[in-house]
């Protein structure tokens, strides 16, 4: 691949990644009005592409963003970018692939440069931050519940996966004041647990797993994978309202994400440390998932420590 650079897709064209730019009057820049999906490759092959694009289609419908690209055409783009850009990473690594669609351009701020507005559609990739996740897989994640609350569902449908992330940035900043490596877990206005900025929460007690209600959190692709794994392994699972006290009285907890897959939780608000990280159920799910996809995603991260 000498003399070449990674590629990306922007508004119907495949171009060098370094040439991808948005105008300052794009509504994705001005208002954060952007629908997005983030997936990963597994052994350099895009993973769960159809599931991510179907969720994006639902987000676009709910946000009323019309695009001309079809799901099949975006799928082709994702696979083309993966096939090309994996040539720039080590064999043992993988990519994250991002698809995003903005609401278009602000005509009043474009100074007459454009005649009409249209959604911006982009697909790009980057190497997975395996070394960052190694700490989470090895030691577990420290969750901090800040004072900042999740956006009410009456204001923004949680089924919409979007890039208006200021409230998450502020929440994670607050968490990192407690622990530089901590992650914020937000409550809703009713005081129930929701999710983190990157993943869905699961708790384990008496071999039974629970996760906050789907109508109040993002419908996680990897969350669904774990629900299916529970069924296969004979583990009981349910979606239920969960309070902070529920989290403080469990044997295990973990997070799921489309990129890091499944990482254990080791502490909550610096107070509750689990006896083992990961716990036996968490480890069992990690092993079953790894076997299913033919990749030990835990070792893929922790091997970067060597």
Automatic annotation (TrEMBL):
GO molecular function terms attached to this record: L-isoleucine-2-oxoglutarate transaminase activity; L-leucine-2-oxoglutarate transaminase activity; L-valine-2-oxoglutarate transaminase activity
Transferase found in the keyword field: yes
Catalysed reactions, semicolon-separated: L-valine + 2-oxoglutarate = 3-methyl-2-oxobutanoate + L-glutamate; L-isoleucine + 2-oxoglutarate = (S)-3-methyl-2-oxopentanoate + L-glutamate; L-leucine + 2-oxoglutarate = 4-methyl-2-oxopentanoate + L-glutamate
Keywords from the UniProt entry: Aminotransferase, Transferase
Cross-referenced Pfam families: Aminotran_4 (PF01063)
Entry's Gene Ontology BP terms: carboxylic acid biosynthetic process
Enzyme Commission numbers on file: 2.6.1.42
Alphabetized InterPro entries for the sequence: Aminotrans_IV, Aminotransferase-like, BCAT-like_C, BCAT-like_N, Class-IV_PLP-Dep_Aminotrnsfr
Pathway assigned in UniProt: Amino-acid biosynthesis; L-valine biosynthesis; L-valine from pyruvate: step 4/4; Amino-acid biosynthesis; L-isoleucine biosynthesis; L-isoleucine from 2-oxobutanoate: step 4/4; Amino-acid biosynthesis; L-leucine biosynthesis; L-leucine from 3-methyl-2-oxobutanoate: step 4/4
Membership in a protein family: Belongs to the class-IV pyridoxal-phosphate-dependent aminotransferase family.
PANTHER family tied to this protein: AMINO-ACID AMINOTRANSFERASE, AMINODEOXYCHORISMATE LYASE
Protein name: branched-chain-amino-acid transaminase
Organism listed in the record: Thalassoglobus neptunius
Taxonomic placement: Bacteria, Pseudomonadati, Planctomycetota, Planctomycetia, Planctomycetales
